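Example record used in the benchmark description.
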Amino acid sequence: MYQHLSKTAKAVLKLAQYNAQQQFTDYVGTEHVLLAILEQGLGLGVQVLTNSSISYQAVKDQIEAVNKKQMEETWVLGQLPGTPHFKQVIAFAIEEAEKVKDKKVGTEYLLLGILREKGCVAQIVLHNLGLTLESARQEVARLQGRPGWPD
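Model output (structure tokens):
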């Protein structure tokens, strides 16, 4: 699955893995990928976020708020928190790249994959910050010089 990723996207996933380990989590979540896109600062993914006025600190603050809320809900329900759908984000990213016949999956497609994975921490954060899948697709198309996004 990872052979489709660009060097930049692979570097983002490596950074996400490192950051997850530094936080002592037992998984790499979509929130780690989103923060890594911003932290690395390369590729169209970070440009879409920056052009949408979404900063690293705003994302980090939203992640903390979403995680806190989910933990409170988890304690009420008496269940352990589930892990984010990291593999599904990668699959969606590959699909998004294939839609526009891009051979490599860059950070812009990771971002679109996050936005497609409803209910994951990173998607909730981006939704709270006002970024939608449709607006991100439009911005990616604009940055790539495409007339629009295929259906």
